[in-house]
């Protein structure tokens, strides 16, 4: 469906400006700052540009190719959100359904009092925790790498949603033993909310998360290279993942050939960050969102649901609602919908964008967005942790929007 690159001029792009992408990526590779990278731009449902640079395995010298498999980490979150919204459309769950009605372990959840320094400084939440709080990251849940007593306890108890250990249902039950960081709905905070939402999908559907994804999303969209565990035959296509050292060298984090994501090794399905995919597979998912819930003959969501997903659910932008901690996007001028960030004011966001474009990124510096106004999809893949290492996303946006010749 997306194998052919169309004439970019017919899609409103300047070919000479699109040609800037490859040397841009190559410059990062040549300086030893990225292992390899890949970009794809589509408009009106047609691919306008695709480019690759560098290596998917630096040690082996294997080139990055179009079919390279990559850890998309938090770009899993929009897929989990779509899974939940499919159940929402079937009236099997509502946005305001209390979480404890689905997962009883959250029935007696407590919340830290303001300024708390220990886990025993808690009170009953003023607002009942709902699934809407999960999908909008206003639940009061957090990540173990953040600051504060809850994050510290998560680190001490090794409470995370890593593919290497644990079980989703058991991990969520352990998580429910800890208090929330703040009253549900009172703030925005990036955390494990979408992992819990994945467990909600399991409980409501009666299906394991990986099977729900395959049967209800991947198979209908033709996504044959997206999974939690990489089949043995596809391991050679998996890129290695790297982290930047203080000396700005690349240190191997997870070798593709020896990956923890191999079939038979994966123990936990993380709806917040566990998937492996390719740029073409993720393009199919993103094109479904651009198509207002449909791709080809498959309809996953109604147009009104996609519009709801891409509508800011906060009172203002992240800067007005959030905490100064990690996020995959900037705070100023950016809102958050049902599982995706939404551009509210490009000027405040200080980035090339359209009002209403939506998407998300992943820990290995990946990113995607859908621009309904321009009928455009953009995806960037690499494998460098963390995503805040370099300003790749802002540069990617600058290159993409500056290549447009017409709205």
Structure in words:
The protein is α+β, with helices and mostly antiparallel strands. The chain has two domains: 8-80 and 208-402, Beta-lactamase; 92-205, Methane Monooxygenase Hydroxylase, Chain G, domain 1. The protein is 29% helix and 16% strand. The chain has an eight-stranded antiparallel beta sheet, with helices on both faces. A three-stranded mixed beta sheet has the order 8-7-17, with no helix packed on it. The protein has a two-stranded antiparallel sheet with strand order 4-9. Strand 2 (46-57) and strand 3 (62-63) form a beta hairpin.
Mean pLDDT: 96
How far is the N terminus from the C terminus? 24 Å
| Tally of individual helices | 14
Share in β-strands: 15-25%
Radius of gyration: 20 Å
Give the overall shape, derived from the CA principal axes. Answer: globular
Q: Which structural class best describes the helix and strand composition?
A: alpha+beta
CATH architecture of the largest domain: 3-Layer(aba) Sandwich
- Please identify which CATH superfamily of the largest domain we are dealing with: DD-peptidase/beta-lactamase superfamily
Largest beta sheet, briefly? 8 strands, antiparallel
Number of individual domains: 2
Indicate the CATH topology of the largest domain. Answer: Beta-lactamase
Percent range of helical residues: 25-40%
Strands, count: 17
Low-confidence stretches: none
């Amino acid at each position: 469906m997306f194998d052919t690159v169309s004439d970019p001029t017919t899609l409103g792009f300047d070919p000479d400006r699109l040609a800037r992408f490859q040397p841009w990526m190559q410059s990062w590779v040549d300086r030893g700052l990225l292992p390899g990278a890949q970009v794809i731009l589509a408009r009106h449902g047609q691919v306008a540009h695709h480019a690759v640079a560098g290596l998917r395995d630096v040690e082996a010298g294997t080139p990055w190719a179009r079919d390279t498999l990559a850890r998309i980490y938090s770009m899993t979150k929009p897929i989990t959100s779509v899974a939940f919204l499919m159940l929402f459309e079937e009236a099997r769950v509502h946005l305001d359904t209390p979480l404890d009605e689905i997962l009883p372990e959250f029935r007696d959840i407590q919340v830290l009092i303001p300024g708390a320094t220990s886990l025993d400084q808690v009170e009953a939440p003023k607002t009942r925790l709902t699934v809407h709080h999960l999908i909008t990251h206003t639940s009061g849940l957090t990540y173990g790498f953040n600051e504060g007593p809850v994050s510290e306890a998560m680190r001490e108890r090794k409470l995370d949603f890593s593919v290497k250990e644990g079980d989703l249902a058991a991990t969520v039950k352990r998580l429910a033993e800890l208090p929330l960081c703040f009253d549900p709905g009172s703030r925005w905070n990036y955390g494990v909310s979408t992992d819990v939402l994945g467990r909600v999908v399991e409980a409501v559907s009666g299906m394991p998360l990986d099977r729900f994804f395959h049967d209800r999303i991947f198979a209908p969209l033709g996504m044959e290279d997206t999974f939690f565990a990489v089949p043995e035959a596809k391991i050679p296509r998996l890129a290695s993942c790297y982290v930047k050292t203080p000396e700005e060298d690349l240190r191997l984090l997870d070798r593709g050939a020896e990956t923890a994501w191999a079939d038979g090794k994966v123990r936990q399905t993380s709806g917040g960050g566990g998937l492996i995919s390719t740029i073409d597979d993720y393009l199919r998912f993103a094109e479904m969102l651009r198509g207002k819930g449909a791709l080809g003959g498959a309809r996953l969501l109604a147009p009104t649901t996609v519009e709801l997903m891409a509508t800011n659910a906060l009172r203002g932008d992240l800067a007005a609602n959030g905490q100064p901690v990690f996020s995959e996007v900037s705070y100023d001028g950016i809102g958050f919908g049902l599982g995706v960030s939404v551009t509210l004011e490009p000027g405040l966001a200080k980035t090339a964008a359209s009002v209403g474009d939506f998407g998300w990124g992943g820990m290995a510096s990946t990113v995607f967005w859908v621009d309904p106004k321009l009928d455009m999809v953009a995806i960037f893949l690499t494998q460098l942790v963390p995503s805040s290492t370099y300003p790749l996303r802002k540069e990617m946006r600058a290159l993409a929007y500056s290549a447009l010749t017409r709205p």
